[in-house]
Amino acid sequence: MRFLKRATPKKYPTRDISGLFRRRWEIETDLAHIKTTMIMDFLRTRTPDMVRKEIWAHLLGYNLMRTLMWDAAEHGRVAPLRLSFKGAMQETMALWPFSASAARQRDLTAYYDALLRAIRTHKLPFRPNRYEPRVRKRRPKSYPLMTKPRDQLKMELLTANP
Q1: Could you report the per-residue pLDDT of 126-138, keeping only the tens digit for each?
Q2: Read out DSSP for 85-137?
């Protein structure tokens, strides 16, 4: 393996590498938010074109939520990464019904300010150098997958157990 050169400490300082490793946690939690919080762990579409559209729609929603969080952080002088993504989504969904009445009353600025204040209430604790084991919390169920329509399965269940 003579073609591989050893990385010199001057070229890649330990401090830089450890900083990148710390940022890895943020990247992993962002991907987990897209998959879990935004319920994208299971894609519902079937064709490759629609799968691409579904992924892009989730990424658009994620970026819109992050933009809201950034704006809330700027107005409240808080670091944007210290705000909870799930909390921001919950506040947005909770205040969503009031957006229509705010639009009718032409009071969108007050609605938006209230939304940003609500998002700012969900601050995350400062946790530098955080790491967690890669394990699954819940065990999978031992039931078979539903491969037939529910009505048909109910009929089979009734006829199997007289």
Answers
A1: 877 777 777 777 7
A2: HHHHHHHHHHHHHHHHHHHHTT-HHHHHHHHHHHHHT-BPPP-TT-------S
